[in-house]
Specification:
By secondary structure, chain A is mostly beta strands. Chain A has no helices and 11 strands. In chain B, the strands form 3 sheets. In chain B, strands 2, 5, 6, 10, 11 and 12 form a 6-stranded mixed beta sheet that branches. Chain B has a 4-stranded antiparallel beta sheet with strand order 3-9-8-7, with no helix packed on it. A two-stranded antiparallel ribbon of chain B has the order 1-4. In chain B, strand 5 and strand 6 form a beta hairpin. The N and C termini of chain B lie far apart (40 Å). The chains are: A mainly beta (114), B mainly beta (115). Chains A and B meet through strand 5 and strand 9 of A and strand 6 and strand 11 of B.
Chain lengths: 114, 115
């Protein structure tokens, strides 16, 4: 039962470097999401996808890009990392909207930008 | 954006006792969903309980129950018979309607259960 798997779990970057966070789900879910979690602020939605080949902006999209080339994968990219992007990043997926199909979360990626 | 407020940053409770976490939200919508998520030290986000706004009956899941006051826009979580494994951060979350994909989270309440 893998569920939602995030890769990597930890990463340290220097300012200006780029990287991609990978999210993979094996539940055949249509919807996928990327959140960031900062102290005292809960989780905030960065980008989301309602299906293969589609993406949309969430609450805090600036500085990030995403791609959903395959249904099971949702990639989050940082083109030029900044210290303000130091955070814990969570990926989630759901079968459909509504309370009957809750979002399932990965274990998070701790990202530090020096 | 919807606003979700959790006014208690930290709470401590003795094992086997009851603790209540508060959550208020701001919306002009009539149809929405509310959730409580638990995040233990392992960092995993776990759905605890959910409530549909159109249901007057408060949701219950084993030792977890909510007090949903729609007019007051309040959604508190009660943990009964607290166990050490309940130690975690608890997040209140709001989803505007069945067709809205986005969850809005509160800042969280850290609950510590003492032995």
């Amino acid at each position: 039962n893998a569920g939602v798997t995030q890769t990597p779990k930890f990463r340290v970057l220097k300012t200006g470097q780029s990287m991609t966070l990978l999210c993979a789900q094996d539940m055949n879910h249509e919807y996928m999401y990327w959140y960031r979690q900062d102290p005292g602020m809960g989780l905030r939605l960065i980008h989301y996808s309602v299906g293969e080949g589609t993406t949309a902006k969430g609450e805090v999209p600036d500085g990030y890009n995403v791609s959903r080339l395959k249904k099971q994968n949702f990639l989050l990219g940082l083109e030029s990392a900044a210290p303000s992007q130091t955070s814990v990043y969570f990926c989630a997926s759901s079968a459909r909207t509504g309370s009957n199909q809750p979002q399932h979360f990965g274990d998070g990626t701790r990202l530090s930008i020096l | 954006a919807q606003t979700v407020t959790q006014s208690q940053p930290e709470m401590s409770v003795q094992e086997a006792e009851t603790v209540t976490l508060s959550c208020t939200y701001d919306t002009s919508e009539n149809n929405y969903y509310l959730f409580w998520y638990k995040q233990p030290p392992s960092r995993q986000m776990i759905l605890v309980i959910r409530q549909e706004a159109y249901k007057q009956q408060n949701a219950t899941e084993n030792r977890f129950s909510v007090n949903f006051q729609k007019a007051a826009k309040s959604f508190s979580l009660k943990i009964s018979d607290s166990q050490l494994g309940d130690t975690a951060m608890y997040f209140c979350a709001f989803m505007m309607s069945p067709n809205d994909y986005k969850l809005s989270f509160g800042a969280g309440t850290t609950v510590t259960v003492r032995a």
